[in-house]
Amino acid sequence: MSETKKIAVTTPTANYFVEIGTGLVAQVGARVDALLGGGLKAGRQKVFVVTSPEIWRIWGQQLTSGLPVAPTVLSVPAGEQHKRLSTIERLLEELAEGGADRDSVLIAFGGGVIGDMTGYLAATYMRGIRYVQVPTTLLAQVDSSVGGKTGVNLAAGKNLAGAFYHPLAVFADIDTLETLPAAELRAGLQESVKAGIIRDRALFDLMDAQSDAVLAGAKAALAKVVADSVQMKADVVHADEREGGLRMILNLGHTLGHAIEAATGYKTLLHGEAVAWGMLAAVAIAKRRGLVTEAEHDRMERVIKTYGPLKRFEADPAELVALTAKDKKNRSGARSFILPKGIGDAVVVKDVTVDELTYTAQRMMAMVAKEGVA
Ligand code: NAD
Ligand code: GLY
Question: Which domains, ranges and CATH numbers included, belong to the chain?
Answer without folding.
Answer: 5-179 (3.40.50.1970), 191-371 (1.20.1090.10)
